[in-house]
Design a protein that fits this description.
Elements (H helix, E strand, L loop, with lengths): L1 H5 L2 E5 L2 E7 L6 E6 L6 H17 L8 E7 L1 H5 L2 H13 L3
Parallel strand pairs: 3-4
Antiparallel strand pairs: 1-2, 2-4
């Protein structure tokens, strides 16, 4: 996963950023990374739960063969459900 942070393509805009890198495998892998603006474990875990739900919901439209890191700021969890989906899908449209 360290290679993902060294050699990647960035997509999206704050509060949700994607880092993607080809992995050459027949599946995609995901890493959920709340940043340091999340002051407590409760906030970090909530953001990760929200991201996992979005990835499960839109798994069928995601390309395979990539490592993906989803970086979120604390403001992401405070958005409405519809706004989070719009932000997620707008970043997904930029996918290589």
């Amino acid at each position: 996963m360290q290679e993902l942070f060294r050699q990647n393509r960035k997509m999206g805009k704050p509060p949700l950023r994607w880092l993607v890198r080809k992995n050459g495998l027949p599946f995609a892998s995901f890493l959920f990374c709340p940043d340091k603006t999340h002051k407590t474990a409760v906030l970090r875990n909530r953001s990760k739960r929200i991201l996992r739900e979005l990835v499960r919901k839109y798994n069928s439209v995601m390309p395979v063969g990539y490592d993906c890191a989803l970086l979120v700021q604390v403001g992401f969890a405070k958005l409405s459900k519809e706004d989070r989906e719009v932000l997620f899908l707008s970043a997904l449209k930029q996918f290589p």
